[in-house]
């Protein structure tokens, strides 16, 4: 079992399988001048498989595949198939922008993928274009409808941003009226691939909730264990909604997750600088036991929350990473 220095048990891995993406969501990546990681510096699927196998022996049972856009990486479906056969991995989930996903849905179902988080920041075609800088709204909506008809659980991720998509909050909620979907409103974080801090007017959880309550009577529903979203329902609606306080960071006390970036850097907190390079450890010829020991040692220095992690990193460098290298 993996337990950190604050007694938190770690059973959840978020793995970014690539830093490449076909969209350019402005809160995640700059439009131009992106420095993608050199191909040789990305983890290979073989390396990712080995890391997951080792971690699964230490209690990691749940995985989220993310990126960049996971489905732009060649070989992803074969990789997912292999991972699904690792005995102790009980759950595979994927976060995707939905642009290359539709034709893979039936294969994902047969692999046993449990849920898909679809990123959709607007249900208005023009606003979608303004945010993602790509004209792929119709494709994403088509994926959404096909996902709803699948056996996989569907969640929508919407980053809430002043001056961009505030008018989408209510239409997005209306999706939950007839669709069995969970819409999650996410606070914007400063991981946009520049040293700029993104929007200066933040939409914290409280403000999002108040905006919803101006129109609807809502009821709290039970959150899944270790959930980062605080979840609610509108009476009579089929789906639900949640708010993820990713910037105000209210959930760190029960954090059960670690992240591995596309280049194999372990992050024990979203806001840390990356603590060790699992890629370098693997490429130096370490055994599985050595890899496990390094990981366990690192977890003994884990910051207690995202504020402590951010303070530590600011001594070295301000946040300037793109979320596409971290995976969200
Ligand atoms: N490309 C896939 C997608 O967009 O779903 C997976 C990777 S993306 C980095 C994972 C999630 O991070 C998405 O839901 C995205 O909206 C979210 N994200 C990216 N940048 C963010 C930011 N600056 N603040 C909050 N969420 C962000
Ligand atoms: Fe690509 Fe996802 Fe980042 Fe948008 S949020 S640019 S889809 S990695």
Structural commentary:
There is one protein chain. With 328 residues, this protein is α/β, with parallel strands linked by helices. The protein has eleven helices and 14 strands. The strands form two sheets. It has a twelve-stranded mixed beta sheet with strand order 9-10-11-8-7-6-5-4-3-12-13-14. The protein has a two-stranded antiparallel ribbon with strand order 1-2. Helix 1 packs parallel to helix 2. It is globular. The two termini are 24 Å apart. The relative contact order is 0.16. The structure holds S-adenosylmethionine and iron/sulfur cluster (SF4). The site of iron/sulfur cluster has 13 residues, from helix 11.
Q: What is the strand tally?
A: 14
Q: How would you sum up the major sheet? A: 12 strands, mixed
Give the overall silhouette: globular
Q: Runs with pLDDT <50, length 5+?
A: none
CATH top level is: Alpha Beta
The CATH homology group name: Aldolase class I
Bound molecules: S-adenosylmethionine, iron/sulfur cluster
Estimated share of beta-strand residues: 15-25%
Average pLDDT metric: 93
CATH architecture: Alpha-Beta Barrel
| Tally of helical runs | 11
* Major β-sheet strand ordering: 9-10-11-8-7-6-5-4-3-12-13-14
Which H/E pattern describes the elements? EEEHEHEHEHHEHEHEEEEEEHHHH
Give helix % range.
25-40%
Remind me, CATH topology?
A: TIM Barrel
How large is the radius of gyration? 19 Å
- How far apart the termini lie comes to 24 Å
Count of the domains: 1
Structural class: alpha/beta
């Amino acid at each position: 079992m993996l337990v950190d220095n604050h007694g938190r048990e770690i059973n959840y891995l978020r793995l970014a399988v690539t830093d490449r993406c076909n969209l350019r969501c402005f809160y995640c990546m700059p439009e131009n001048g992106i420095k993608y990681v050199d191909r040789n510096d990305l983890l290979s699927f073989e390396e990712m498989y080995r890391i997951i196998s080792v971690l699964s022996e230490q209690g990691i049972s749940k995985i989220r595949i993310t990126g960049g856009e996971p489905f732009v990486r060649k070989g992803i479906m074969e990789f997912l198939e292999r991972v699904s056969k690792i005995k102790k991995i009980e759950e595979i989930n994927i976060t995707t922008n939905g642009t290359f996903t539709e034709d893979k849905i039936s294969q994902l179902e047969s692999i046993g993928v449990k849920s898909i988080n679809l990123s959709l920041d607007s249900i208005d075609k023009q606003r979608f274009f303004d945010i993602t800088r790509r004209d792929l709204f119709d494709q994403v909506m088509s994926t959404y409808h096909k996902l709803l008809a699948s056996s996989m659980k569907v969640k929508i991720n919407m980053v809430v941003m002043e001056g961009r998509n505030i008018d989408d909050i209510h239409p997005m909620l209306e999706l939950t009226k007839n669709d069995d979907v969970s819409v999650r409103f996410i606070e914007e974080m400063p991981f946009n691939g520049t040293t700029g801090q993104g929007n200066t007017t933040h939409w914290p959880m409280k403000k999002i909730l108040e905006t919803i309550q101006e129109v609807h009577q809502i009821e709290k529903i039970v959150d899944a264990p270790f959930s980062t979203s605080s979840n609610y329902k509108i009476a009579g609606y089929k789906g639900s909604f949640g708010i993820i306080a990713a910037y105000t960071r209210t959930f760190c006390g029960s954090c059960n997750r670690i992240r591995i970036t596309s280049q194999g850097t372990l992050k024990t907190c979203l806001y840390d600088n990356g603590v060790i390079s699992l890629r370098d450890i693997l490429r130096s010829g370490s055994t599985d036991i050595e890899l496990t020991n390094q990981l366990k040692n690192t977890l003994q220095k884990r910051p207690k929350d995202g504020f402590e992690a951010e303070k530590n990193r600011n001594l070295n460098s301000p946040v300037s990473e793109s979320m596409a290298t971290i995976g969200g």
